[in-house]
Design goal:
single chain; alpha/beta; seven-stranded mixed sheet; two-stranded antiparallel ribbon; SAM-dependent_MTases_sf
């Protein structure tokens, strides 16, 4: 991996190979998958049925691959072509829908559905509509997990500092009551801890570019991001660390 070249390049979007490369770099330095997978295993253990998994925003398929053995059928929604290539390698038996969630046609009734870090790319006014659309793909008695960063963590403070954007899945809770009857039952908010540790400034800047690639948000200068990273994340030993705990909104569809 040519870190120097990749770290200097602006990430154009989720269909850009630089986005996937930066995402892979982020995953190599975070414990997010380990902590999230442990949480998901506990959720799976409590499910009344394990027929179908629906993974919306499956990315390169790390979590899909982890969960797939527990389910008879696996369906993924992933609009990014570079991510779909990696997803096909990670979980070959997954049925993949290439359209974004707002346009996707999903023939499934999932016992577990994930909407994982997707709402950043959906206008805030459409969060409830998107959630309702996904809940229609959840089987009665099934569960939807909506994952977003905790807006108070160090990562999202950086995002807010440079882009002015604020993402808080807790705001969605009050809107769920207005969804059609039979879609939403009990809801719970869980917190899954996560920490990123970068081995060098160059790696951490590449990851910061990935985290700041918010749609329709201003792009800060490299110099400004570097100054922020040095000030807030520097461990004074050549490495960099920040917290990025996740919020998980657990939504149950009522059983008949």
């Amino acid at each position: 991996m040519e870190l120097g070249k990749a770290a200097r390049a602006r990430i154009a979007g989720t269909d850009d190979d630089a986005y996937r490369e930066a995402f892979d770099m982020f995953l190599s330095g975070t414990d997010e998958k380990a902590t999230t997978h442990a949480y998901l295993r506990r959720v799976v253990d409590r499910l009344p049925a394990r027929r179908t998994l629906l993974d919306i925003g499956a990315a390169q398929g790390t979590t899909t691959r982890y969960l797939a053995p527990y389910f008879e059928r696996v369906v993924c929604v992933e609009p990014s072509e570079p991510m779909r290539r990696a997803l096909a390698r990670a979980c070959p038996r997954a049925e993949v829908v290439a359209e974004p969630v707002g346009e996707a046609r999903v023939d499934a009734r999932a016992d577990l559905a994930l909407l994982s870090h997707v709402l950043y790319y959906i206008p805030r006014a459409q969060w409830a509509v998107t959630t309702a659309r996904v809940m229609e793909w959840v089987a009665p008695g099934g569960v939807l997990l909506v994952l977003l960063q905790n807006p108070d963590n160090a990562c999202m403070r950086m995002v807010r500092h440079f882009t002015g954007r604020h993402f808080d899945v807790r705001e969605l809770v009050g809107e769920l009551a207005a969804l059609p009857p039979g879609l939403v039952g009990r809801t719970e908010l869980d917190v899954v801890p996560a920490r990123y540790h970068g081995r060098s400034l160059e790696e951490t800047l590449m990851v910061a570019d990935f985290l700041l690639s918010v749609p329709e948000a201003p792009s800060p200068t490299r110099e400004a991001v570097e100054a922020y990273v040095r000030r807030h994340f520097d461990n004074e030993d050549g490495t960099y660390t920040f917290r990025h705990d996740q919020h998980v909104l657990r939504i149950e569809r009522p059983a008949p």
